[in-house]
Amino acid sequence: MLQLKHIHKHYGEKTVADDINLEVGNGELLAILGRSGCGKSTLLKIIAGLVQADSGEVWINGTDHTRLPPEQRGISLVFQDYALLPHLNTLQNVAFGLKMQGIGRKESYPKAMEMLAEVGLGNEAQRRVESLSGGEQQRVALARALVTNPKLMLLDESFSSLDTGLRHHLRQFTADHIRRRNIPAVMVTHDPEEAFTLADHIALMDSGKILQTATPDALINRPVNARAARLIGAYNVNDTHYIPQQALHFNQAGGTICTVTQFSRLPDRNLLGMQHPQYGEILLLPDPAQTEGLNLQTGSQWPLQVDEDKIVWFDR
Ligand SMILES: Nc1ncnc2c1ncn2[C@@H]1O[C@H](COP(=O)(O)OP(=O)(O)OP(=O)(O)O)[C@@H](O)[C@H]1O
């Protein structure tokens, strides 16, 4: 289990960690979601011991790790650029972490082979890592991170450089491995989709502050303020309120007549904009079956029901 207690960090005038308190249980994946420059990577580095906080404590499995050097923390990091060692082959790369722990080849190579097989690269052990594809290199990085049986995994935008199909596959693959091994993990990302598809809990970070920590469902239903709602990429947000998708019912008898402002078909959903007399332009994602065969040209009119009790009002 990871616990961060009152972490503070400044760079000059800039506060990059402002009283951060977080907990991550074993086998649990916490995503820290925030815009570029909000302090996500710095927080990971503080957890890893690569950057010292001004104050606050990092506890892992009930012991204070705040003053331990990085190599004694038992943490594995997976970076965006994999950070593999180009002069070593696949097997040697995976065994490297074990070597650093003082484990000899006799023990480290079989363990590394086992882990390579687990990530589907059992036949590539002797390949130079440079000759592997991006996705394969990412799996080597993951194998290297997992083989040391870390107390904690840290993932820093680990999937951003991969193409869409591979990204989906490796995200799920990584999350499954972490959960199966019961390791707590922290992933930082600026991509709401990544956070929402993988994480058990999401911490929303803004200018060094955690705005809200909650499950994906709770965040969708009840972001604490407009900033939080915008950070999760929600539609229909202004300074006073947020209208979640589940509050919207397109083409419902008795709904308010609204004018279509835009309509586009996306591969797996539709995006429909409607001008509502009370709430202004509302964007909704109707099921394709609900819009099939309808005239949804700009200017056409259709009823839209808004469940008032599902609207989230913000305190100003
Ligand atoms: N060593 C440093 N010295 C001074 N300022 C720094 C240092 N490291 C980071 N910063 C600044 O602190 C802020 C937070 O940086 P950090 O890398 O943690 O952000 P981030 O949320 O991870 O951003 P990104 O998503 O772009 O990687 C940025 O404004 C950055 O320029």
Automatic annotation (TrEMBL):
<keyword id="KW-0406">Ion transport</keyword>
<dbReference type="InterPro" id="IPR050093">
    <property type="entry name" value="ABC_SmlMolc_Importer"/>
</dbReference>
<dbReference type="InterPro" id="IPR003593">
    <property type="entry name" value="AAA+_ATPase"/>
</dbReference>
<keyword id="KW-0813">Transport</keyword>
<keyword id="KW-0408">Iron</keyword>
<dbReference type="InterPro" id="IPR015853">
    <property type="entry name" value="ABC_transpr_FbpC"/>
</dbReference>
<keyword id="KW-0472">Membrane</keyword>
<keyword id="KW-0067">ATP-binding</keyword>
<keyword id="KW-0547">Nucleotide-binding</keyword>
<protein>
    <submittedName>
        <fullName>ABC transporter ATP-binding protein</fullName>
    </submittedName>
</protein>
<dbReference type="InterPro" id="IPR017871">
    <property type="entry name" value="ABC_transporter-like_CS"/>
</dbReference>
<keyword id="KW-1003">Cell membrane</keyword>
<feature type="domain" description="ABC transporter">
    <location>
        <begin position="2"/>
        <end position="232"/>
    </location>
</feature>
<dbReference type="GO" id="GO:0005524">
    <property type="term" value="F:ATP binding"/>
</dbReference>
<keyword id="KW-0410">Iron transport</keyword>
<dbReference type="Pfam" id="PF00005">
    <property type="entry name" value="ABC_tran"/>
</dbReference>
<dbReference type="InterPro" id="IPR003439">
    <property type="entry name" value="ABC_transporter-like_ATP-bd"/>
</dbReference>
<dbReference type="InterPro" id="IPR027417">
    <property type="entry name" value="P-loop_NTPase"/>
</dbReference>
